[in-house]
Design a protein that fits this description.
Shape: globular
CATH architecture of the largest domain: 2-Layer Sandwich
Helix content: 25-40%
Number of helices: 13
Largest sheet: 6 strands, mixed
CATH topology of the largest domain: Nucleotidyltransferase, domain 5
Number of strands: 18
Strand content: 15-25%
Structural class: alpha+beta
CATH superfamily of the largest domain: ATPase, nucleotide binding domain
Length: about 425
Amino acid sequence: MLGIDFGTSNSAAAYVRADGVLCPIELEADRTTMPTALYFCAERAQVHYGSAALQAYLTATQDQASGGRLMRAIKSLLGSRLMEERTAVNGHLISFFDIVVLFFRVLKARSELQLGHPVTQAMLGRPVHFVDDDPQRDALAQATLERAAHAAGFESVRCQLEPIAAAFDFERRITRETTTLVVDIGGGTSDFTVIQLGPTRRDNPERTHDVLATSGVHLGGTDFDRLLSLEFVMPLIGLGHIGPSRRQVPSGIFHDLSTWHLIHHAYTRQRLHHATELWTAYTDPALHRRLMQVLRERLGHQLLAQVEDAKIACANSSGPVEIDLACIEDTLQAALTPQALSRTLQVQVDKIVACARQCVARSGDRHIDAVYLTGGSSALAPLVQALEQAFAGATMVHGDRFGGVAAGLAWAGSVTART
């Protein structure tokens, strides 16, 4: 059974062979993860996936001008009405659901190429909540995910909560009974579980009694990117700018440009016309020229990628990091310091830690032996520091940020298949 972690920002897959050896799938050359991204190249009517999609988008300026389309964070649409809507790519209409199916087909094909045999069973990861406080939409999101996997060619599909899957991966490396708080900080959600783990438990197919509590909140790395973009980049093209009428420039366009799955909305003919007419709302015409440069050259994804890169660099630095904005102007940049990173993300970090505390409370306030950190944003310094303070008596364990959930799904699938 193939374990598939279909992530908001990155995806991974893994498989446990018949001899019990875990086999992470190289979805790209020498890499076991790939960006959850598709680029529809209008000029050649081709579709690129993963890193190739990002590279094609950044280099094919002619394709962009003729209607090339980059899509990221498509997982964020699960559970929404947008999933069944159709959008124009490469000269024809396709539903967002069918775009998810295309991505699953590539995951399946690349996995089968490495394994050397067909794979018809899949164990899919899912967040604790696709949608906060809406059980019907949450159930719809899982049903849509399963339906997409079936449409991609999988005959048997099961789901497991992503933090529980991460726990199963951690369990393969411990030698004693451990009460663990799993903290899985992904691109779109932050998920938690308190679970009993141990070497005598890991081959038991029924783990319901070991899971003491779960919780989750719809906050993750893409939310961090959005806030940092709005704070440090968008003001350089007009966000918060006071015009001649003593009013701020309308902010909607800046929020779209800072949200991965909404960026393409900023490029419609109607929005472009509206942005052109905004010149009267600017006191500084240079800011308006920058905005139009971003829209006409479709630089939104590139800008947000620069923000994401700076976020990661700043999380590992004690000094300032520059957000490179040379795609707008040769010398344009914005400084991001660790202190500013912490300040900008403070509210979101507090919400994530509060959700982790809530999970422990739901477990009956069990003593936590270890906090297991996984997910692409789990290494963010302000978050790690806040978790260390919140759970001072526990050992902090940093897992495989991008492959741990897929590995745990594969282990869960292998135990299920044996029984």
